[in-house]
Every structure is written in C-alpha cells, then in structure tokens.
Design goal:
Elements lengths: L19 H17 L7 H28 L14 E2 L6 E8 L19 E6 L7 E6 L3 H5 L10 E7 L8 E5 L3 E6 L6 E6 L4 E5 L9 E2 L2 E4 L3 E2 L12 E8 L12 E13 L4 E9 L19 E9 L18 E3 L5 E3 L8 E6 L6 E6 L4 E5 L9 E2 L4 H4 L7 E7 L6 E7 L2 E6 L7 E3 L7 E6 L6 E6 L3 E6 L10 E4 L10 E6 L5 E3 L15 E3 L2 E6 L4 E6 L16 H21 L5
Amino acid sequence: QEGETRVVSAQCPEDLGLSREVLEQATTLHKKRNRQLPGWTSTAGALQGDRNRRLTNFVKRYGPIMDALLQERTSNEVSLFSHMDNMAKSDSLSACFVKLAASGKAEVPNTGSEILAERRVTGVAYSPAASVPHLLASYTPSVSGVENIRDHDVSGRGCLAVWDMSQPESPKHILTSEGCPTCCAWSPKKPHFAIAGMEEGGLCLWDVREPAANHPMEGKVVCRRPTYSTEFNPDTEGLASIASIAVTEVAEGSTGNLGEAASSSTQFQLVALDKWGTVSVWMVAEMSSSDLAGSDVDFGLRIGGRVKILLTAKISQYGPIHDIAPMNGGNSGMETTPQGSTVLSARKIGRQTYDLVVFPEQPNQFLVAADQGVVLRGSRFGQPPPPRMYVLDDPLISGKPSFATAVTSVAFSPFFPKFFLAAYSPAVLALYHEDVGLALLTIPDVTSGDIVAVKWSPAKPSAFFALDTKSTIYAYDLLSRNPTKPVHSERFGSENGQKGTVTSVEFSNSSPKVATIAGKENAAPEAETSTKEQHSFVLMYDDGRVDVHMLNKNHTLPGGLSDFANSSTYKETEEFLNRFHVSGLAKAGEKKP
C-alpha cells in the first residue's frame, strides 16, 4: 500500500460538471502526494496489526500472573478475621470465628460453595508457604451424588477446596477427583501444589497454576482435575485406604529416578500411611517442560501437566525387634528383613494404623500410631535407632499388658522437636521423648468419651490441646499447678443454635503478623486494633461445616513469638521436660545419651 488514495475517475455523473481532463489531473495529484509521504507510512497497517497480536499474546501469558499479584496482600495488610461477625466470650478458647462452608445448602451460587453442599469434611491443612494464609479442605462425594453416581456429575466425585483466608466468602479453587479423598496436605515450599490421599489407596496432586481453560466447567465454576494421579500405577496395588500423609523435603543431591528434566528446587517427598500399616514413599518434582500431546508412557500425568509423582519405597516392616502378643491369639506378625533382623509387619498381623508423623529433625524417620496401644518407629532408609516402639508402661513392671487401647493421634512439639504427644483411645494422653520408649508423663481419664486428636499449641511452648468425640476441646499447660488436669475445657458445635459433632481439629502451623479486628460491635477485649501475631485453629464437623477460630490471647505466649527462646515460659518448659526426660531414662534403665 502507498497510503490512502481516492480514485475519482471511476465514475463521473453528468451533473458533476467536470471534464475528463480535470478528473485525470486530480488523480495524478493524489498519486504524486502519496509518493512524497515517508516510507514508514506504507507499513503502518502491518505494524498496527503486529502490535495487537503482541498485546494479545502478552495478556494471555502474563494476565493470570498479574491478576494473582493484584489479589495478593502482604501479611501486614491482611486481617485473617476481618470478615468475622461471630464474637465469642472473653474467657473462651476462641476469640471469634468465621464459617467457611454451610451445611446442606449453598448460600452464594456460582462461586463453588454450592458444590460443597451435603459433603462431609475428611481433612484440612494450612499452607506453610503462602504469604497470605490458605486452607485446604477435602470432602467426600455428596449424599445425593452417591445416590445418583451414574450421572457422572461433580456431586458424585470427591473434591477439595482451597480457601483464601483473606477472602473466605467462597473457595478460591475447586479441585475434583474420581475417588474419595481421606486426607490432604500442601507442598512444604510451593503454595501451588495440593495433595490428597484417597480411599482407594492412591494419591492425587493438583497444580493450581494451570490455566483455567485446561479444566472443565461445572456451571460457572472451574473444577480442576488432578495434574497427576497414582491410581493407574500397578505398584499401588494392595494399598488400602490412605489414613495419613506427611510431606518432607528431599535431601540435597537426591534426585530419585525422575531424570535430568526434574527441577530440584521444587522437589519434595510424600510419606503416606494406609490403614493397615503400609508406608509408601513418593518423590514429587516439577518437570522443566510439558507435552501438550500427553505421555504415552506415564498415564497418571494429565495432558499439559508438569508435575510427577514416583514411588521410591514401600515399607511394611518396621517397629520392634522383639515379639508382641497379637490380638485374639493370632499370628505374631514377625518377618525377617534382607539384613537378617526380625521386625514386626503390621499388615501381616492385621494391625490397624491411624496416624503418621515425620521426625522434625530427622525426616528419614517416622512414627506410626497403631492399635494395641503402641507407637511404632520406622525409617525410610536402613533401620531406625532404638527405641523402635513406644508404650505407656512396661508390662513386666506394672503387671498388666500395655496393648489394650489404640493410639489415635501423634504430634511433635514445634518448640521442642524431640518430644511428642500420643492420644490413646478411650481417654489417655502420654508425653514421650524420642530416646525413651516409656511414657514420661501419663494423663488418664481425660474424658468420658474417646480422644480424637491431640495437638501442640503453635503459640505457647507449654500448652497442648485434646479433642474428644463429644466435641469438647481440653486445654493443658505443663507449667500449671497440676499438668495432668486441663486448665480449660470448652464444647463446640452449638454456635448460633446449630448442631453438629466436631470430627477433627487442626492448628495453624505458622505465625503470620496480621491486623486484628477493628470496628466490631460486642467484640471481646482481645480483639483490639493493633498489629501482632494471630493464631487460628480449624474445626471440622460431621455435617460439612468448617469453622476457623482465632485463638484467644489467654492461650498464647505473652509478648508473641518474636523472642520466645528468651521468655520465661520457654525456659521453664524446657526445664520441666528435661527433668521428666532424665527420670524417664532412669525408669527405662537406659543411659543418658
């Protein structure tokens, strides 16, 4: 093109009054002017079209990132509880709470909350890496979906919800799976990876960075399918329902068998426990590139996915090297390892297991909560050091068996990582040190029901909590006058006239500095306008409710955790635990290391 021209010699109405010579002169003049224009104008149209294409490609590529950055807030600008209208009493365990999901109905349509209706919550997890606190909750298929499973809609599938605690009105992401999730977890360093253990024995992983266009829609809600699923893997055959999963970082220099395409900066490991005692170890890594055509070898990888999960070990032999009396006179369950030592196989004797935790300072080792009142110690590589089993007391000394109850929950202290708590059914709590196989401190008759879970406080070194089947949380303090008696107990589930049973509790694993509640009527005294550390805990109900509570300042460390190691509470708790450790070593007849 030579610029804009107008051909006026094509037609000439007789009433125009112009001769052919005049028209030819006008056309010649237009062409002369066009030749005198700068050369760059000849490509103006092409340049404009190129600009439009480049802008479109830029928006497509970086638009989601810009949108996420605009939605993010620094922790100092976000109030976790700014949306809370429910204020508790000043002497309550909870200062206030917010409801994340309503039971049996969807209050906000087309936001994902309607998909969570009529579902039971099976697990929750706080994200340890997100700048703004995020919560992951796993749900069973809905009641109506199970009845109409042939319809193959989202109600008949399990799902997970990602909640942004700064915007709790609706879930940020909805993740769906073909199976039923039983527990969930986050990546230890990347806030983009969500993991769930399945009732069918597999693991599913979602990468929430994937474009929404790559996933199906349910109405106006994007339902993300798993980026990777292990359920196709023949190595998972024989695994029962996953009871618990734990995440841990990979040791430096360890790349597993993922090849050079794996990015070591995003590698971590999953340790999964099924309900009959088999521990499986998985390597998770993000690949450097994805294949839009899919993989004809790895059928667990979704088309366009970049994250893989590979099985590195399956462990069913761990625990003590001596025999344990089996239940009902059955098989002792002892097996011989390739190294020639004799260990206990939980699966062989039909032992049921309930919980798994990884040693904070030794991620190669793990603890398994099992029935018969034992906590078993295992290792991903080699044999763990003694003791390999933890019990309440020695039956040879007490004259009664120690294997009468089941261990339902285990938790390591975030302040003193060599000490852990174990909850026994029906109503016993025990404090242990990793070097002593007998309980250092036993708390009997905690409740008239069964203990569901035990958790250390993330805000006070000497405090821990226990939840029972009657929806009551018992708060203990090791520095109180009687550490075997609760300093506070409170029953949940009847707020605002609602009924429901609390099935589990989870405490925040981080200490974000956030602004507390401002401008609330009838607020508790601790809900003052300031910037300080806030800690929360989540309650899960059998009717699908999920409530996030702010921990009352009466159950936190005065002055916060900025200098907790120099606080009197920390030093007194350390002295208390060391005293019990020494007496426990003497009681067990072991030498102090």
